[in-house]
Specification:
Layout: E1 7-11, H1 14-25, E2 28-31, E3 40-43, E4 61-65
Parallel strand pairs: 1-4
Antiparallel strand pairs: 2-3, 3-4
Length: 94
């Protein structure tokens, strides 16, 4: 069975989610700019120079602002073996 390699957490209040996960789980966060949709990269444990976890016990991911128009479509996970099954992003259409 393949292991999970990335997660995404949509949040209604991104600032509150960042505070919660960094303070309670010790996650390291890297806020990207508006050109990247203000996406927040999450490092749950030690990472290498490429941002990959150094230990397979950790899974890195991201936080993003929840899109209210995506209710029922924005799941927070992707089946990377079957990208044709991915829901379309309501913002970009991709």
């Amino acid at each position: 069975m393949n292991r999970v390699v990335h997660f995404e957490i949509p949040a209604d209040n991104l600032a509150r989610a960042k505070k919660f996960y960094s303070e309670n789980f010790g996650w390291k966060l890297n806020q990207l700019g508006p050109e990247m949709g203000n996406y927040v990269l999450v490092h749950t444990g030690p990472s290498d120079e490429q941002g990959m976890p150094q230990d397979k016990a950790f899974i890195n991911g991201g936080l993003m602002q929840r899109d209210p128009s995506a209710v029922g479509r924005q799941t927070g996970w992707r089946d990377h073996e079957h990208p044709e099954r991915w829901p379309l992003c309501p913002r970009t259409g991709h």
